[in-house]
């Protein structure tokens, strides 16, 4: 269990709320304080037993906590870092849950002047398409992966506290460089989200969109699930990781153009070999995930 | 229930096998005869209670049945139509389950000389990423939609028998023109499959593909489920509906290029408006499907 006797959650939605619930479920007895901009949502978080109390001033909240977890959209993190910078105490541990890591580190450097030893960026690979504190649940991170991307300034003590946090939530932890994280996630998470959003938006703007959706098959529901994700959050991710996202979009557009040519030229072998490699890789991926319990 | 006293299923895999099981579950007491190319798979279908018996000669099988349901990949239908053409009897009803309808009608016209009155093409919008008769189950079509695309030669009597077939399987039926079907399905089904195959193949051919898949989130599994579909079947669909599939790929590639530009130019409003329209459409679609029982 974490050593901090009090935790501040900045941004109490699905992600931050689920951390709070998971800590409680794991037996954490310290105080959990929420920060946000909307008092109504925070009052709801208290009613739901997600946080013990809340504050609307990030600096005030920061002064009362030892472990600080920033769970706002990635481009809003700078603002939170700015607000808490002057209230951090020696030994405080600061982490975040952002889906992009280089941009968060830049924001922290700008806000804190130099990167604090206690700052260990992280990214739990979990989430649903739902949003808000009402969607939070204590098992969101169970058997998921939390990637830590310590900076050159991070202390080992702080990194271990962040590992304890995610392990208490049921996640496995791993460490990698922020740049590598951003490249890998652009391919496996950011690119699929861009595709799902673009596809659904294409269909939604057809003149016959009502009919289109009426005839969509079951597979369509799964395929487009991530297009129900938060537009704000994903706008921020697309911008914060724009280099890697654009590069991955370019690579995919080339593949789609090749596939389109193969279809137009009736190159059956080429089409089938693309589909077959994809099926093999996807089946292997599913076998891999099924080897871990409760995937 | 259907009026035919015997049914021939040409191609006893997930789709054809599930029709047979659904007919039985609905109380059909006539004979169900399977046709296929591999005796081992057909013997398995008999063992599993999916069909009563089987034949390896499509013409022989056709001579013994009144309702003929062709469930082979769309580009293999011509061959089956050729083989059964001379064995059809007056009053026989012929249908299929192909995901593209204009190509099937062309194949029938070529094989039968002129389109038989008993021929009513159809497409049940259902399926899973699994294949083979072992994957068949009797509720695959329950609360699903079966689209009939009668030709100008189809008799009303035959169309009603095909409707009874799908209604006995638990599906709702609807009729529309074959060209309209192919256009709508290109957008809602064929395009998403092309995207899923292309994305997974892109990732699978990266040098770091093992690591890539290791860090894929839960959403990735849903998003790529359809990339585990049958490469043969989907190669055929891409080719059989190549005009509409290519046009939809072109439209999507343009959207992806626009989105890529918006990301590279940091046009936050444009990015967010795409994502927001997509989320609204997808949420509305889910609400729509949740209004029908057991979606």
UniProtKB/TrEMBL annotation, chains A, B:
Pathway: Amino-acid biosynthesis; L-tyrosine biosynthesis; (4-hydroxyphenyl)pyruvate from prephenate (NAD(+) route): step 1/1
GO biological process: one example: tyrosine biosynthetic process
All residue ranges annotated as the Prephenate/arogenate dehydrogenase domain in the record: 5-293
Enzyme's top EC category: oxidoreductase
Matches recorded under Pfam families: PDH_C, PDH_N
Known EC number: 1.3.1.12
Keywords in alphabetical order: Amino-acid biosynthesis, Aromatic amino acid biosynthesis, NAD, Oxidoreductase, Tyrosine biosynthesis
InterPro entries noted in UniProt: 6-PGluconate_DH-like_C_sf (IPR008927), NAD(P)-bd_dom_sf (IPR036291), PDH_C (IPR046825), PDH_N (IPR046826), Preph/Arog_dehydrog (IPR050812), Prephen_DH (IPR003099)
Record carries keyword Oxidoreductase: yes
Catalytic activity annotation: prephenate + NAD(+) = 3-(4-hydroxyphenyl)pyruvate + CO2 + NADH
A GO molecular function held by the record: NAD+ binding
Family: Belongs to the prephenate/arogenate dehydrogenase family.
Official protein name in the record: prephenate dehydrogenase
Organism: Abyssibacter profundi
